[in-house]
Amino acid sequence: MTLLHNDTIDTLLNRRTIRSWTDEALSEDELETLETVAQRAATSQYLNGWSALRITDPAVAAELARIGNQPYIAQAPALYIFIIDAYRNLRIARDADVPEADMTFDADYIFTQSQNDAVLALHAMETAAESLGLGTVILGSILNDVPAVISLLGLPEKTFPVLGLAVGHPAQTPALKPRMARELQIFENVYPAASEGASGEGAASAPSMHEALAGFDAEVAQYYDLRFPDQPVKAFTEQIAATSTDTGRLAKAFGEPARAQGFTGRGL
């Protein structure tokens, strides 16, 4: 089979992370376009449960760079933080005299679906930016210290940071990072194997995971060898094994900060 192509598909297929930009600022037209496109993303139950903060204060950007341990965050010509936002709807319900005890904005469903809304909006903005020739990087690093981000951005109850997006005119053209074989991520009807050689729909023709990963390992090793020739090369499976015991992940617990923001997880 042959991939079909158009401008949208080619933009998505050529997606890459950019961490260095020129000094050229984004125009007001570019900013308005990106923000309007983000607003057109799908939203669960039409709740519009997300918002984004455009960071224009250099001191705030510098603090986000410190929290994320990524200096380039402070250098981005445009910087957005996407958040869960049930506060706006909370205010609407309060103004309509809905009894507070009857509201369900603290529900786990609201938290999860609003998080999904924020991610979809960010991805729409990212894709639009890249279609305009801009370069982007998604910033999960803002979650290194959620309470600090909440305080820094003055986030009220029923809000929570999700991801950041840095945008600018690219000053680099990195190689496309490899992606694993389609059969390792796209399955038909049922998950193909709880164990190697499992029977059931889709399992008989599925290649061994280890066989499929071997080719991906070779691609990843070559990618890193070309990008960082002076550093030890690690295949994908080696990276996963090495990071599987990363205790730093345990320090990034979101439960308590979410509860502090009023998301009690009702419905769990």
TrEMBL record:
Nitroreductase domain segment(s): 13-169
Cited Gene3D superfamilies: NADH Oxidase (3.40.109.10)
The protein's name: NADPH-dependent oxidoreductase
Species for this entry: Alloscardovia macacae
Key words of the record: Flavoprotein, FMN, NADP, Oxidoreductase
Protein family per UniProt: Belongs to the flavin oxidoreductase frp family.
Gene Ontology MF terms in the entry: oxidoreductase activity
Lineage summary: Bacteria, Bacillati, Actinomycetota, Actinomycetes, Bifidobacteriales
